[in-house]
């Protein structure tokens, strides 16, 4: 169990800089998820922590000890690969015991530890099989088991669920969460799937283009995105981001003209009349209201059973995504009036950074 | 698309024709080795004759067949073992830790194979002479090792490339240093590939004639030199020359026959997956 500290970490290939100076501290027993679009550098950073990629600049400390020059086999970390990377010529037990064998752990203890891990992961019946004779989910569990038996300082997961089908992914996600509770281990988990990030993480680190956009708990990121990138990345369906101009500012309210002409008023923020802003509205924070300030017509409706998603054109470049109750009698082509239902509204300045979140005023 | 019957018959005929044309000289050599010298030069050539083992006895009296076989075995297996030991780390490094020069390096390695050997005969002869390696097995092993190294590196590189890099990385995370990675992961996974590379290298150096003829005389002469030694004084005695040649190709032919499954499996390893 250990802490991990990253100071101004950089990675470049020739003149191309992939990781552009990252600072991060990961606490003991914390579950940290790196999330971001593909090519943002999250996997590269994980591989630098693992020691599989060289560090071009900055410093990596594990339990306060500099690790830059230490080879991966001596960092005491375990990694679960996206492709599982099991040794095809060894049995499940052989795969799980491999690291212990290299470390010279006596046979009896090796078998004992493999048995314990196999029991945790329900692999006991499969110990004598070769990886080729396992299903995808079983291989995934063996890969996790191989990490567990080592009792590493920290677990590194590199998109471990992306090769599984949807149902298995949810199940394995829950198992990994349970594993973290049971093992009380430090875990770093890379994914491009924001649902995995939201459900697993103690803290999420959002990456974009080699930089950290925001670090915070899942709900902090959801309710207080620091910038437009995080606002658009976290949440499904995505947050509506609409251009707006400040029409008036009073002590009680900020009056905004949205693209398309609708006027809403929200609680005051730090913006002068005439300033251009981007308003972030979560789809579930918009309701149908015959007296509402926003008018539009329904372009599409998706009925998912537990909820319905309506796409309402309000004259802005993109339609407004609205999450409605399942039986909501909204029809295609219908004209609707919408209101903000009293939850958070995020405001972003022209530089893309949040102004600090505000609440819409009742009656709007 | 289904080929027409006529087309398939023609292709079969062509295939059989080509195979027979290539096999004929070898078959004729073996046949001739069992003829008397008079039968061997008869016109028209005899297909039916009284076979005799006379030539084989005479060949063994005139030359040191056993010594030549021993030299061939030592040189071909010795050079192959050394070359594989040298090529493994090179191919491992290039396959799993490539950098921007790897492609050029590989091409350069192969390009040394494109140079005609005779171009460096003089310097190599002089080096061998001044180091006392002329007509020694050590000298020939060194030459064969270096001559086959490029092809061995290339083949091993191709086989190693087939192994997912993740598996090597997983073993690094599991605590395997470079040697352990090669021993516990690479060797078992690339085993068939390494074996067929070795077989090919043995065959190549067994059949190699240029260097063995130019750098050996008596002590280190392998089978290729053994045949040549027969062709000049016994040049007109076709039956004895055939017997000597048959004896020379027999061991490697038997060896190749026994290992052909392994050889084919290794050579098509990348293709069929």
List the helices and strands and how they pair.
The complex is a heterodimer of chains A (364) and B (273).
Chain A: E1 4-13, E2 16-26, E3 31-35, H1 42-50, E4 57-62, E5 65-66, E6 77-80, H2 92-102, H3 107-120, H4 136-148, E7 154-158, H5 166-183, E8 186-191, H6 194-200, E9 203-208, E10 211-216, H7 218-223, H8 228-233, E11 240-249, E12 254-258, E13 263-266, E14 276-281, E15 286-288, E16 294-303, E17 308-313, E18 320-324, E19 335-340, E20 346-348
Parallel strand pairs in A: 3-8, 3-9, 6-7, 7-8
Antiparallel strand pairs in A: 1-2, 1-4, 4-5, 9-10, 11-12, 11-14, 12-13, 14-20, 15-19, 16-17, 16-19, 17-18
Helix pairs in contact in A: 2-3, 2-4
Chain B: H1 5-33, H2 37-40, H3 54-62, H4 65-96, H5 102-111, H6 121-130, H7 137-161, H8 165-173, H9 178-207, H10 210-215, H11 223-231, H12 238-267, H13 269-272
Question: Keywords, please?
Answer:
heterodimer, A: 364 residues, alpha+beta, Rossmann fold, OB fold (Dihydrolipoamide Acetyltransferase, E2P), 2 domains, six-stranded mixed sheet, five-stranded antiparallel sheet, 8 helices, 20 strands, 23% helix, disordered C terminus, B: 273 residues, mainly alpha, MetI-like fold, 13 helices, globular
């Amino acid at each position: 169990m250990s802490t991990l500290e990253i100071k101004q970490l950089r990675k470049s290939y020739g003149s191309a800089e992939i990781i552009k100076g990252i600072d991060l501290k990961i606490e003991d027993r914390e579950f940290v998820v790196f999330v971001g679009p593909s090519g943002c550098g999250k996997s590269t950073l994980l591989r630098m922590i693992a020691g599989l990629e060289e560090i071009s600049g900055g410093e990596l400390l594990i339990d306060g000890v500099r690790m830059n020059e230490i080879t991966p086999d001596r960092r005491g970390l375990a990694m679960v690969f996206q492709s599982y990377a099991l040794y095809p010529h060894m049995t499940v037990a052989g795969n799980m015991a491999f690291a212990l064998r290299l470390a010279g752990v006596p046979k009896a203890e090796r078998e004992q530890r493999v048995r314990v891990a196999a029991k945790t992961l329900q692999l006991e019946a499969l110990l004598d099989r070769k990886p080729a004779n396992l299903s995808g989910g079983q291989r995934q569990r063996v890969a996790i088991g191989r990490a567990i038996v080592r009792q590493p300082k920290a677990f590194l997961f590199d998109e471990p669920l992306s090769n599984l089908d949807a149902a298995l992914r949810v199940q394995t996600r829950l198992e990994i969460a349970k594993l973290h509770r049971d093992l009380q281990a430090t875990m770093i988990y890379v994914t491009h799937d924001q649902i995995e990030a939201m459900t697993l993480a103690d803290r999420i680190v959002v990456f974009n283009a080699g930089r950290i956009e925001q670090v915070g708990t899942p709900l902090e990121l959801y309710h207080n995105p620091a910038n437009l990138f995080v606002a658009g990345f976290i949440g499904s369906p995505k947050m509506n981001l609409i251009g707006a101009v400040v029409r008036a500012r009073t002590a009680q309210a900020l009056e905004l003209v949205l693209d398309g002409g609708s006027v809403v008023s929200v609680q005051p923020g730090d913006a002068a009349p005439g300033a251009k802003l981007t308003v972030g509205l979560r789809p579930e924070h918009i309701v149908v209201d015959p007296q509402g300030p926003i008018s539009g017509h329904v372009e599409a409706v998706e009925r998912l059973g537990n909820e319905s998603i309506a796409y309402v054109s309000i004259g802005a470049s993109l339609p407004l995504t609205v999450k409605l109750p399942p039986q909501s009698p909204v029809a295609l082509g219908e004209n609707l009036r919408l209101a903000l239902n009293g939850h958070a509204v995020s405001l972003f300045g022209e530089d893309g950074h949040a102004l600090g979140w505000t609440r819409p005023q009742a009656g709007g | 698309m289904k080929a027409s019957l006529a087309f398939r018959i023609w292709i079969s005929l062509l295939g059989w024709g080509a195979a027979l044309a290539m096999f004929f000289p070898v078959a004729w050599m073996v046949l001739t080795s069992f003829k008397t010298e008079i039968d061997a030069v008869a016109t028209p050539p005899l297909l039916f004759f009284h076979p005799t083992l006379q030539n084989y006895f005479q060949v063994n009296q005139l030359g040191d067949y056993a010594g030549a076989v021993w030299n061939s075995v030592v040189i071909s297996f010795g050079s192959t073992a050394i070359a594989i030991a040298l090529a493994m780390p090179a191919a491992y490094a290039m396959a799993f830790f490539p950098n921007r020069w790897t492609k050029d390096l590989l091409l350069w390695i192969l390009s040394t194979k494109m140079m005609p050997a005779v171009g460096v005969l003089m310097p190599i002869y002089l080096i061998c002479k001044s180091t006392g390696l002329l007509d020694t097995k050590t000298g020939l092993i060194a030459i064969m090792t270096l001559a086959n190294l490029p092809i061995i590196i290339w083949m091993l590189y191709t086989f190693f490339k087939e192994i997912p890099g993740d598996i090597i990385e997983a073993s690094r995370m599991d605590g395997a240093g470079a040697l352990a990675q090669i021993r516990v992961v690479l060797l078992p996974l690339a085993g068939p590939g390494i074996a067929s590379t070795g077989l090919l290298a043995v065959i190549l150096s067994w059949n190699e004639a240029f260097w063995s003829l130019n750098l050996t005389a008596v002590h280190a002469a392998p089978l290729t030199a053994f045949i040549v030694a027969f062709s000049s004084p016994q040049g007109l005695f076709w039956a004895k020359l055939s017997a000597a040649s048959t004896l020379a190709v027999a061991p490697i032919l038997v060896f190749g026959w026994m290992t052909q499954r392994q050889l084919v499996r290794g050579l098509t390893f990348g293709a069929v997956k």
